[in-house]
C-alpha cells in the first residue's frame, strides 16, 4: 500500500507528483518511495524528456532541471524538486510549411515594394523634367512677347452659347 494519493509513473518508476508553484508557477515535487527506486535509479531518470503515464500531472512534452533530491526517513521516500526548463513543440512540420509560404510572400512583397519605389523615383524624375520644360517654355514665351509687343496675345476664339445665339443645333 502506498503512502501517496497520486500514483503515476515516470520512466516506469511509481511516484506521486505535486505542483508547488514557484515564482513562475513551474516547480514540481516528485515523491518516490524507497521500495520503488534507489537514489541511483532516480538520478538515472531522463529528466530532459521523462516518459510519463497518462495520469502523471507533470506537463507533457517538457524538460525539467532537478534542483534538489531529499530523503525522508519517516516516510521512507525521496522527494525530487523539479524546475520546468522548456517545452517541446512536437511535430511542427505543418506549421513550418505555413512559415515557409509566409516567408515567400514576404520576399515577394518586398520585391514588389522595391519595384514600386523605383517606379516612383522614375516618375518623380519625369515630373521634375516636365516642370523644367514647362518653365523653359513659359520663359521663352515671355521673352518672345517682350521682343515683339505688337504681336500681343494670341487671339482667343469667341465661344458663344448656342442658346444666346438663338441657334439650337442637334
Short description:
This protein has 170 residues and is an alpha+beta fold.
What does this structure look like?
- The chain is α+β, with helices and mostly antiparallel strands.
- The chain contains three helices and five strands; from the N terminus they run βββαββαα.
- It has a five-stranded antiparallel sheet, with no helix packed on it.
- Strand 2 and strand 3 form a beta hairpin.
Number of strands: 5
**Range of helix content:** 25-40%
Please indicate the percent range of residues in DSSP E strands (runs of 2 or more).
15-25%
C-alpha Rg (nearest Å):
43 Å
In spatial order, strands of the major sheet run 1-2-3-5-4
**Overall SS class:** alpha+beta
SSE sequence, one letter per element: EEEHEEHH
Mean pLDDT rating: 84
The total of helices stands at 3
Detail the poorly predicted runs.
Answer: none
Q: How many angstroms does the end-to-end distance come to?
A: 112 Å
- Main beta-sheet strand count, sense and barrel state: 5 strands, antiparallel
- Which descriptor suits the 3D outline? rod-shaped
Q: Which oligomeric form is depicted?
A: single chain
Amino acid at each position: 500500500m502506498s503512502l501517496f494519493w497520486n500514483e503515476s509513473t515516470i520512466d516506469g518508476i511509481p511516484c506521486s507528483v505535486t505542483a508547488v508553484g514557484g515564482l513562475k508557477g513551474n516547480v514540481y515535487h516528485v515523491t518516490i518511495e524507497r521500495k520503488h527506486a534507489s537514489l541511483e535509479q532516480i538520478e538515472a531518470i531522463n529528466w530532459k524528456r521523462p516518459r510519463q503515464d497518462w495520469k502523471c500531472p507533470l506537463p507533457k512534452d517538457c524538460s525539467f532541471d532537478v534542483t534538489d533530491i531529499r530523503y525522508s526517513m519517516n516516510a521512507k521516500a525521496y522527494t525530487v524538486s523539479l524546475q520546468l526548463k522548456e517545452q517541446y513543440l512536437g511535430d511542427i512540420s505543418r506549421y513550418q510549411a505555413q512559415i515557409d509560404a509566409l516567408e515567400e510572400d514576404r520576399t515577394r512583397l518586398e520585391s514588389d515594394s522595391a519595384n514600386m519605389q523605383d517606379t516612383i523615383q522614375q516618375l518623380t524624375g519625369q515630373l521634375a523634367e516636365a516642370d523644367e520644360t514647362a518653365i523653359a517654355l513659359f520663359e521663352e514665351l515671355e521673352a518672345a512677347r517682350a521682343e515683339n509687343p505688337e504681336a500681343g496675345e494670341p487671339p482667343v476664339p469667341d465661344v458663344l452659347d448656342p442658346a444666346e445665339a438663338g441657334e439650337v443645333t442637334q
